[in-house]
Each structure stands twice: as C-alpha cells, then as structure tokens.
Design a protein that fits this description.
Blueprint lengths: L27 E7 L8 H19 L2 E3 L2 E3 L9 E7 L4 E8 L6 E3 L25 E2 L21 E2 L5 E7 L2 E13 L4 E14 L9 E4 L7 H5 L3 E5 L11 E5 L11 E5 L17 E6 L2 E2 L9 E5 L2 E4 L1 E3 L7 E2 L1 H14 L4 E2 L11 E3 L3 H4 L3 E5 L4 E4 L5 E3 L4 E4 L2 E2 L4 E3 L7 E6 L4 E6 L6
Parallel strand pairs: 5-12, 6-11, 20-29, 21-28
Antiparallel strand pairs: 1-4, 1-14, 2-3, 4-5, 4-10, 6-12, 7-10, 8-9, 9-10, 10-11, 13-14, 13-30, 15-31, 16-17, 16-24, 18-19, 22-23, 23-27, 24-25, 26-27, 30-31
Length: 442
C-alpha cells in the first residue's frame, strides 16, 4: 500500500551562518527533559504513549514503493526530549524538541497567528525585542544571485521585503517563516545561529508538547552541530521509569566525550545517501542479532540500505533520538519473535486487550528472571548488549511485553534501547561510540 508522499522541504535556509564562530573550548551542554515528565502518567501509560509515537515516527521516516510510485521519508513526526535555552538580546526563554533525524533549528515567533500556530507553554519569541535579530537576505550583495545562506538548499523563496522565506514539511505537519540569525544561549555555551522564525504552523495537535520549536542534530548544514562546526555531539538518557527526577543530557562540541571509565564500543557510520532527507540520518552497520545464546538466522540483506529509484532509498539502520522504541526490518523481527517464543514458551502470558499489537508478554515481575539479553552485532566487531528492561516494558500492573516493533523495510534503534547509555556521534570522524553509564550522575 502506498504511503503518504512527503511534502519536499522548500527552504532557503543557511548552510552556515555563524557570526561569532564556533562554540568555544567548553562546547555546549543542555539538560533534557522527557515530554512525559510534564504529566502524571503511570509507567504503563507512558509505554502506550511511546508505542503510538514509535508507530508515527516509523511511518514518517521510511520510504516505500507502491501505487506505481515512490515516497520519501518525512522527519520529525513525534516528540520525546525537550531542551530549554535563551534566544535574542535581551534573552527570551524558549524550549525545543531535540531530534537527530532533522536539521533545522526553529521556534514559533510572535508573528505567528494563534489560530494556526501550535500551543506552547512559553510566550512566542518576539524578534522586534531582540537587538541581535537579523533577517537573512534572499539576494546576495552587488545585485548578484541568491545569498549563499538563502541558497544553501536547492529551492528558496524571496519575500516582498527581500528577506529569505522558508517552508518546511515534517511528519507532524508544516511550517512557514523567515530565516534569520540571532544569539542562542544554552545552559553552558552560546552561539549565533541561523534559525527559522516561524509565522505559520499547521501541526498535528500535541506534536510539540508545549515546546516552542525544534533543534535539529542531523547531518545537514542547518543543524546545530553543523552550524557550530562542532563535529561531534553526545547524549545520555536516564531511564524512562526509574530516573528519580534526574534529567538527561546533551553535549555538543568539546563537551561531548565518553569519560565514564567504562568499556567504550565504537563502529563506523554507514555513508548516508546524498539525497535529502536521507542525507540527514545517521546509518549504522548492523549485521546480526543474538538473543540469549542463540544467533538469529537473518538474511544479510535485511539491514541493507537500497536505492529504489533516483532520489529514493529504503532500508538501512538508523539510530534515532526521536523514536522511543526500536523497530526491526521484517526478517529480523520475525526471527526475534520466533526465538523469544521458543525460549519463553512456558513463561508467556496473553497480552492485555489494548496492547497495541504487542504480542509477546510475560508476568511483569518475571522480566528480569526469564527474558534473555539481546545483542546487536555491528560491523567491525562492535556489540551493543541490550538488557531485558531496555526492550521489554510494562503494559499494565501485571504484564510486561516486548516493545520492539515490526519496521517493514526499516530498522530504527530507538531511545528506549539507549537509556543509561552515553552515545557519542563523532560526525567529523565518521564513528559512533557508546558506553554504559549511570546518566543520572553526569
């Protein structure tokens, strides 16, 4: 069945615009808060919310063929972790969802029409009150062609006043606004960034969860990592259900390092396609899975990134901060389910009536006793060991179920699997590293 085709991003957004250079010797640090921390949800309610987000995220990111055509993935359909920061001079508070699957930094502005823009907890950013706000021009100086910042992407729009207008579409909807630069100040570190000042937003209700906008950490030239020239970033996510109020952490630039003293595992990234939006994603060289002591028999092609047609790709393995639960390509998902069914045969119980398709379940108190560990094998000999509590979760007071989803052609490594793991993206060096860490102690 054909999936909804992507509305291609039309943007005149900047490739670089850093008036003040990089982020300095100490880099950037941001504390991250899970969106569900704002509500009094039970563990089971959080799992169901995360499962719904995973389904939305997967539907928005994977490409497909069908109905005689192809469709490209759309990033950011969901919400997970939020960072607070200041923008402008004098500074105004803002909050943004952090997403490794997209690039643009944007916030809703005071010019946003309340009837069409998303509700947010903080006031909209008022550009007229910032002495450092500067619109990006559409045309370059001297009457030449497009400004290099505005022309960073193939398609751009010129406003009547000569400024650069962008239109961006996501799985959660679309936004329109002006590209500008301004001063951003984080919990530690600051930079002048090109960002989208949004004046129109048509987004799925609740997709922003009260945040002001988005901070993209993808590979594209508009992301926070690329604009600051940082070359690397890392995050450490506290457990979903037992974090005792501890915040998660994001580090950019010099602040991003694995210094916890534990064993560090590293692997090369798979080269991303040049075609947008695939060029924004971080692909990994997954080659196999082991559950308990059983190495799963999975065709080697199951995790391959394949080109369907010029500009359209399917498959591959993406590590993703915006997807709660991991999803596996069909062959891998079926092999995992079959082997777990065999190993847990006497311990399996029926799923709750509203399990959302989660079929493999055990008694909640038995997860740590009977569920085997899961190991992801990557190219170069790197292994990621996933404990039972990072791929099983409670659905009610008595039942816990496996929360890995069937991804069709796509494999996504979600953030639930990455809890209490410090993950370092060395973008400049082309490698991903991780280290088991108590993230509440960073």
């Amino acid at each position: 069945m054909a999936r909804t085709p992507m509305l291609i991003v039309l943007s005149c957004l900047s490739a670089v615009v850093l008036a003040s250079g990089g982020v300095g010797a100490t880099g950037i640090h941001m504390e991250l808060t899970h969106v569900d921390a704002k509500g009094s949800y039970t563990a089971a309610e959080r799992v169901r919310r995360a499962a719904a987000v995973t389904r939305d995220r997967l539907a928005s990111m994977r490409g497909s063929a069908g109905g005689g055509g192809v469709s490209a993935p759309v990033h950011w359909a969901t919400r997970q972790y939020v960072a607070s920061y200041l923008v402008g001079d004098p500074p105004q508070r803002a909050e943004a969802i952090v997403d490794t699957g997209s690039d643009l930094v944007w916030t809703q502005c005071a010019t946003c029409l309340r009837a069409v823009c998303a509700r947010q907890d903080l006031p909209y950013f008022n550009a007229s009150r910032s002495g450092t706000f500067a619109p990006v021009p559409c045309r370059g100086g001297g009457g030449g062609g497009a400004d290099r910042a505005c022309a960073a992407n193939d398609v751009h729009l010129c406003a009547l006043d000569g400024s650069c207008t962008f239109v961006a579409s996501y799985g959660a909807g679309g936004i329109i606004g002006s590209l500008a630069t301004d001063a951003f100040t984080f919990q530690s570190g600051a930079a002048t960034l090109a960002f989208g000042c949004v004046s129109f937003a048509r987004l799925t209700p609740g997709s922003l969860q009260g945040a002001s906008g988005l901070i993209g950490l993808g590979r594209g030239r508009l992301s926070l990592v690329s604009q600051t020239g940082a070359g690397r970033f890392s995050y450490c996510l506290t457990p979903y259900f037992h974090n005792n109020g501890a915040t998660s952490h994001l580090f950019v630039g010099a602040a991003a390092s694995l210094a916890g003293g534990g064993v560090t595992t590293s692997m090369p990234f798979v080269e991303s396609p040049k075609d947008f939006p695939y060029s924004s994603f971080y692909y990994l060289p997954l080659v196999g899975l082991t559950v308990g002591e059983a190495k799963l028999r999975i065709p080697s092609s199951s995790f391959d990134l394949r080109q369907l047609a010029p500009g359209f790709w399917v498959g591959g393995v993406i590590i993703d901060s915006g997807s709660p639960f991991t999803s596996l390509a069909d062959d891998a998902y079926e092999a995992l389910g079959d082997e777990l069914s065999r190993q847990l045969n006497g311990s399996l119980v029926p799923p709750p009536g509203d399990s959302g398709g989660m079929a493999l379940c055990v008694r909640r108190g038995d997860v740590g006793k009977v569920v085997p560990k899961l190991v992801f094998h990557f190219g170069g000999g790197a292994d990621m060991v996933v404990p039972p509590e990072s791929y099983w979760a409670p659905l009610d007071e008595s039942t816990a179920c496996m929360v890995i989803a069937d991804g069709g052609d796509q494999t996504l490594i979600g953030n639930f699997q990455q809890q209490n793991m410090h993950v370092l993206y060395d973008v400049a060096g082309g490698r991903l590293s991780f280290q088991a860490t108590d993230c509440s102690k960073l």
